[in-house]
């Protein structure tokens, strides 16, 4: 799944679902909104590199 | 009348180089297929695990491997809550049913990719056969010319 598809998938999930972000070996619990923000930031960075 | 320009003849060295390129391509594609097969096998094992845990129900004690053969005991609070990696370092909590559906979809995607790679291998094989034939023909021509 590309980042846009991941964002859409996250948005399709009910609000009470837990979301985690991998930081090294750890999985940190984050909110769905934080996850979407992170993904958008990653996408922006990728665009800048290109 | 203008003379027709002759196509420059391909040399044995060029043919061999091209042949080696296709063989390397086939090997790389095979390696990719092996990785895909491994992923599919892992996904299938996960399906089995989710189903087994669902059947066992809540409150079962399990051992979680923590490396070097060591394991730690834990209790399954809710086998209907599965956390699945959805890409880009993000994992999401899904119900067991949703997780099974998600994994089945991933397997389908991998199988489609596998079919594409198999087709690419078949095409590369075809090219290899053609080049081998050309190599044989060129070898015969060169043999005749040297006599």
Description:
Chain A is α+β, with helices and mostly antiparallel strands. The two termini of chain A are 19 Å apart. Chain A is built from two helices and two strands. Helix content of chain A is 56%, strand content 20%. A two-stranded antiparallel sheet of chain A has the order 1-2. With 147 residues, chain B is an alpha+beta fold. Chain B has two helices and four strands. In chain B, the strands form two sheets. A two-stranded antiparallel ribbon of chain B has the order 1-2. Chain B has a two-stranded antiparallel ribbon with strand order 3-4. In chain B, a hairpin with a 2-residue loop joins strand 1 and strand 2. The mean pLDDT of chain B is 92. Classes of the chains: A alpha+beta (50), B alpha+beta (147). Strand 1 (19-23) of chain A pairs antiparallel with strand 4 of chain B.
Distance between the termini of chain B: 35 Å
- Work out the strand percent of chain B: 15-25%
Strand order of the largest sheet of chain A: 1-2
The computed structural class of chain A is: alpha+beta
Query: What's the overall geometry of chain B?
Result: rod-shaped
Helix and strand content put the structural class of chain B at: alpha+beta
> Percent of residues of chain A in helical segments?
55-70%
Chain pair with largest interface? A-B, 18 and 11 residues
| Percent of residues in helices of chain B | 55-70%
Q: Count of DSSP helices of chain A?
A: 2
Strand order of the largest sheet of chain B: 1-2
Oligomeric state, counting identical vs distinct chains: heterodimer
Major beta-sheet overview of chain B? 2 strands, antiparallel
Strand content of chain A is 15-25%
| Rounded average pLDDT of chain A | 92
Order of helices and strands of chain A: HEEH
Main sheet of chain A? 2 strands, antiparallel
Report the mean per-residue pLDDT of chain B as an integer: 92
Count of DSSP H/I helices of chain B: 2
**CA-CA gap between termini of chain A:** 19 Å
